[in-house]
Structure formats: C-alpha cells, structure tokens
Amino acid sequence: MRAILVGIWNRDITREEARGSLRELKGLVEAVGGKTLGWVLQNRVRPDPKYYIGAGKARQIGEISRGVGADTVVFDDPLTPSQVRNLERVLGLTVLDRTDLVIEIFSRRAKSKEAKLQVELARLTHDLPRIYGRGKVLSRLGGGVGTRGPGEQEAEIRRRVIKRRIHQIREELEEIKKRRRLQRKRRERSETGERILKVVLVGYTNAGKSTLLKVLTGRETFVADMLFATLDTKTSARYLPSGIKVLFTDTVGFIRKLPPELIESFRATLEEVVEADLIVHVVDVSDDMWLDHVQAVKEVLRELSADNKPVIYALNKADRLVEKEEDLEHLPHTAFVDGKAVLISAEKGWGVESLISEVIRTGEEVLGLQLVE
C-alpha cells in the first residue's frame, strides 16, 4: 500500500492537532506494511456529506496521488459507505479510513480465540453497511487495488450471512464473558477472608503498560515497541507485607478516535476496567502529544462509564527526559494532570516503589482498611 493521507481541521480541531493525528495515522499505515507518500490537510467548517473533502479537492488529490504513484487514499476520520463509493469513483483508487487500519492491526495482533472473535465482530459490523457497490477488503490490500462488489441479489445474500455470523459471535463472546465473571469470582474468593484490591492498568497504545505489569508482578509478558502489541487482558497478583493481595490487570491500549465498533466488540474485555477498585493510567510522557493521549483515554473511560473511578497517573518513560532517577523530582509533568501522579520508568524501575506506595494509599481509601502493617 502506497498511501496519501487526508484530514481536516476547523474550530473544533486545530491545525496542529490535525497534524498530530495524521502523524499517528502514518504510524497506522506503517503498522499494516504500507508507506505514506504525503498528506493533505484541508480547512473545512464540517466534512462534506458526499465527498468528505468536496468534489474539487477530491479531484485534486486524485491528480496528486497518480503523480506520486499512490494506490490508496486514507482518511483520518470514519467515512460513510456513500462517501467511500463517491470518493473511489472520483479518485479511481482504493479509499480507506482510520477505522479500516485500526481493525486490520487488531486482526494481525489477535492471538487468543476471544481477541480473534472480538476483532471479527468489529470488522463485520464495520463492513455490513458497505457491502453494496465497490468494496474494500483490507486483508487483500497488498497491491492496494479495490474491486467491484457483487450484484444486488448476491449482496443481500452476503448481508444475511454477515448478520447471522455477527449473532453467532455475540453469543460466543457472551459465553466467554460469563466464564470470565466466574473466574473473577474464584480469584476474589478467599478461605482466609483476605481482602483483594483490584487495580487495572489503562493507557494509550505503546505507553508501556505490559512492561509495568511485568515490573509490578514479575509476570513474563510480551513487550514490544509497537502499536497494540497485546490485545488480551492479563491479570497477575502481588502480595503486600500484610498478606493483602493486589490484582493488577493489563488491558488493550487505547488510541485517538478509537473506532466505536472496537469499543463495543472489546466491551467484555474492558469490563475489567468497570470492575476495578482503582485505575492506574499509564502515560508515555516522552511523547510530545502525551496530554492529548491522556484526554483520549479519559474519553474511552467515559464511554465505559468508568470515569468515576479513583485514578493514579503513572507518567512513564521519564528516563527519556532525564539521565538519573533523582532528577525525576525536577520534572514538571505531574502538575499538568488532574489528580495523583507519579513519574516512573518501568523499563529502568525508576519510581516504581513510589507508584506502589501511592496504590497502597489509594487502596486504603477505597477499601477502608489498612493494607500494610
């Protein structure tokens, strides 16, 4: 895939914010093996209902794309099925949006049966309104060339097949959800009557959650410098000196403009967030856009109705900002977030004990008992 990226900016999103979003979109293109040849950013009050960017700009982008040898145009916002059809007619190229890329990345990263079902559900939900007319199947985008869709009768048959499969996947996921609830109850059941503190790690993708989970609990987990490296929920325990058990749960990473299809599909997995006693929000403070990432995660928590939970910000990757652990206290980042915050480097172990102490203090407030003696 050789792509041109397209986005818009207006009074709701500044030009710089739109540029940052396109930089992230470039990373998504690279994550599916594509190459970005350039980008177009348009100032519009609102997206054009027919072409998103207007017919004139669409023709201009088509000329640019052919001039540089692009085979795909990727839009930074979700497109309607009619916008996709109209744009592909004008451009003569494959048209994708951010949702297509994110779903494809999730598809490639999914390892467990549950994750694969969740991604398939998201893809089918996304594709269902688009089966008429000219289709676009990302898994066949090696050459980036779209193909004509089936006739109306065949499309209707395919539509019914997709609906049946969606229903089947939802039933399977509901069974998995029931099993997870039973597992959670077994984890929480204790013959000695000990109280368990449930802590969930959330954060923007590639913020370092899996690395932090490994440091906090000693559990070996897959760690990589890549978008959405892990999709499966992982729970590990750490015992405090008092015998209190702390359950730390890692979750799938978030992203700006996370497709609603994925939020809905992964809702069973993200139920761990809703059930937690407190949230550790892991943030990569070495990223220039880290405050925007914090806001994006907050928006997802609101959608999950988990925005009323106690939150501790673990401001991670601080070793990229200072050379020594003792210099952490000179960084101003904790002043920019609303609530408790600890500067850390999960990779080097800096500030982790301070984070654990903050988790204990907050846990005592939540549970109403003393966690350490």
Explain what the structure shows.
It contains eleven helices and ten strands. By secondary structure, the chain is an alpha/beta fold. The strands form two sheets. The protein has a six-stranded mixed sheet, with helices on both faces. Strands 2-1-3-4 form a four-stranded parallel sheet, sandwiched between helices. Helix 1 (15-31) runs parallel beside helix 4, helix 4 packs antiparallel against helix 5 (113-127) and helix 5 (113-127) packs antiparallel against helix 6. Mean pLDDT is 83; it is low at 134-150.
Query: In angstroms, what is the radius of gyration?
Result: 23 Å
Structural class: alpha/beta
Strand line-up of the largest beta sheet: 6-7-5-8-9-10
Q: How many helices in DSSP terms?
A: 11
Query: What's the shape?
Result: globular
- Mean pLDDT over the residues: 83
Helix content: 40-55%
When the domains are counted, the total is 3
Helix-strand pattern: EHEHEHEHHHEHEEHHEHEEH
Name the poorly predicted regions.
134-150
CATH level 1 class label of the largest domain: Alpha Beta
Instruction: Determine the CATH superfamily of the largest domain.
Output: P-loop containing nucleotide triphosphate hydrolases
CATH architecture of the largest domain: 3-Layer(aba) Sandwich
Q: How far apart, in Å, are the first and last alpha carbons?
A: 59 Å
Largest sheet: 6 strands, mixed
Total beta strands: 10
Strand content: 15-25%
User: According to CATH, what is the topology of the largest domain?
Assistant: Rossmann fold
